[in-house]
Amino acid sequence: MKKIVCLFLVLCMSQAVAIAQESLAFKDGEKLTFTASYKVSGLMTELAQVSMETSEVKTSSSTLLHFKCRANTYKKLDAFFKIRDVYESYVSKYSLLPLLYKRDIQEGGYKKKMKYVYNQKTKTIKSTQTKRRGNGTDWVQDKNFSFSSGAMDVVSTLYNLRNLPIENAKIGDTKTFKILFDREETSITIKFVGKETIRAGNLGQKECYKLQVLTSGDFLKSGTLWLTADANKIPVQARFTIPIGSGTLQLTNATGLAN
Question: Would residue 18 count as lying in a domain?
């Protein structure tokens, strides 16, 4: 009887996991490409290409999803201000909680790396920050700090947002996230403001959820995000205003979609 009960439980758990995986808005092999534009001298100018890739990584004890976001200025603009930024997050395939985060930014002559190793049980992070000095040497600083339950880096936050049941939201509904950036927590609130049909690169015109980004932080003044109103919830467009100007991200190509 015990064996039968155990077998029944295993089958139920397997089915629950399968259902959970079917509900994910993304999968191994997804790649999204965007153009990044910034208002220069009153004109919106395309400056860089941004990509978001999802892959599956197997470790000795589990299977993780690896989210990798890259931003590169176009070659013709590198002489003016070269950007080569990489943001990565490794999350549990089942809980979508991050276990490892890496940020490597090269903007002009400025270089900086940040690494978080999460302990989700103790809600602590082992972080390592590496900065390049003017003389070409590196300054490395290790620091451990605590984080609130549910707080995540910016990359895993975006993918968790995509997996929310926005289809059940009513206009005016909000969801608050705590984002970890440079070892500090910042709260942002996402507000559902309706639906809108906009251009979505190779996907053509798509009906999208329109989300307003609300924050009291000093960096972001305002922001709006559009996600496709389907099971993939692909970020199609983002508009943002910061103290030194405004910019736009526009989807150009989407492949390897989950649904």
Answer: no
Section 38-53 average pLDDT: 85
Contact 102, 115 (CB under 8 A): yes
Residue 7 covered by a domain: no
**pLDDT digit string, tens, across residues 101-157:** 999 999 998 999 999 999 999 999 999 999 988 788 899 999 999 999 999 999 999
Q: What is the pLDDT of residue 238?
A: 96
Counting other chains too, the contacts that 167-170 makes at CB distance below 8 Å and 24 or more residues apart are 167/229, 169/209
Residue 57 CB-half CA count within 13 A: 15
Total of domains in the chain: 1
Q: Which domain holds residue 204?
A: 35-255
Q: For position 61, what pLDDT does the model report? A: 84
Closest CA to 13 of 94, 99, 90: 94
CA dist 131 and 106 (Å) reads 10
Q: Is residue 145 part of a domain?
A: yes
Distance CA 183, CA 69 (A): 19
Q: Which DSSP state fits 203?
A: G
**CA dist., res. 166 & res. 159, Å (int):** 13
- Is residue 159 one of the residues assigned to a domain? yes
Phi/psi at 2 (nearest 5 deg)? Answer: -60, -40
pTM of the entire predicted model: 0.87
Rounded distance between C-alpha atoms, residue 185 and residue 154, angstroms: 11
Comparing CA positions, the residue from 134, 100, 128, 135 lying closest to residue 113 is 128
Distance between CA 171 and CA 210 in Å, rounded?
A: 10
Contacts with 61 (C-beta within 8 Å, 6 or more apart), sequence order: none
Beta bridge partners of 16: none
**Short-list 221, 200, 155, CA closest to 35:** 200
